[in-house]
Amino acid sequence: MNRVAYQGTGGAYSHMACTQVFPDWEHLACEDFLSAFDLVQKGFAERAMIPLENSTAGRVEEIYRLIPRTQLFITREHFEPVNHCLLARPGARLEDIRSVSSHPQALAQCHQRLVNLGIKAVAAVDTAGAAKALAASQSNDSGAIASRLAAELYGLEILQENFQDVMGNTTRFLVFSREQEHELPQPQVRYITSLIFAVRNIPAALYKALGGFATNGVNMIKLESYMDGGTMEASHFHLDIHGHPADLPVANAIEELSYFAREVRLLGSYPAHGYRTRTAFV
What is the pTM of this model? Predict the structure, then answer.
């Protein structure tokens, strides 16, 4: 059976994404992101499901530093809606709950709901871990904020769904593989291409490096900067663009980027997820 690795406890939102994209695969929980990458690099898993950014919490900083250290390719993107559920042990009622545990980010996203109910927030390592700990306890006045999947896995009751203060919270995941896919574009498919590169700390370095995308009419969707390698002398960048390297404008833009930048590496081209079209994300 094929296997996909993810970071977190069973029932985490990364696990939810795995069940959506790879429902018939074995889902391997990992303690951290590096372990998920390593399982794929060493051949113990075929894919890794990695969160890159969240519409409310922003980017997952650690991932940008880990990607350059791997030899993996991006083969797919997935947008997973985050539906926080207020969970309790079987038989507990909403009016019984005095405290709720979850990851700090989930607690922040449900802050007003908790205040309105007069419930104390207690930080935990992750959402699914909070649900697992609640199931092992004997407390009917404690709850957890986690996914519907976590409730199913640990035998908890859902007191309220969509418990977050703001609807539409979504996480973008990237799927990584040892082998590159989509090397030849298919007709009528919209592609995203991701790459990383570095520029020297000199005037107009980034302007010159990115100029080719403008002159060739290639749309840049995302540009993230980060420092890596223990030095402050050079900036590294993660870039997402519209198109496929087999398209002449994209090929010309990447060639110009390679002339002005260094350490240019294509991470992969993959079909744009339908979420982008539905929300006018790009």
Answer: 0.91
Burial of 12 (0-12, 13-18, 19+ CB in 10 A): buried
User: Torsion over CA of 253, 257, 259 and 261, rounded to 10 degrees?
Assistant: 180
3-state secondary structure of 164: coil
pLDDT tens column, 127-147: 999 999 999 999 999 999 999
Q: Is 171 a catalytic residue?
A: yes
Q: Which of 171, 176, 213, 237 is flagged as catalytic?
A: 171
* DSSP per residue, 16-70: HHHHHH-TTSEEEEESSHHHHHHHHHTTS-SEEEEEEEETTTEE-HHHHHHGGG-
Nearest Cα neighbor of 110 from 63, 56, 149 is: 56
19 classed as catalytic: no
Q: Are strands 85-88 and 26-30 parallel, antiparallel or unpaired?
A: unpaired
Count, residues in the chain: 282
User: Catalytic: which of 22, 73, 173, 260?
Assistant: 173
| Section 32-58 average pLDDT | 94
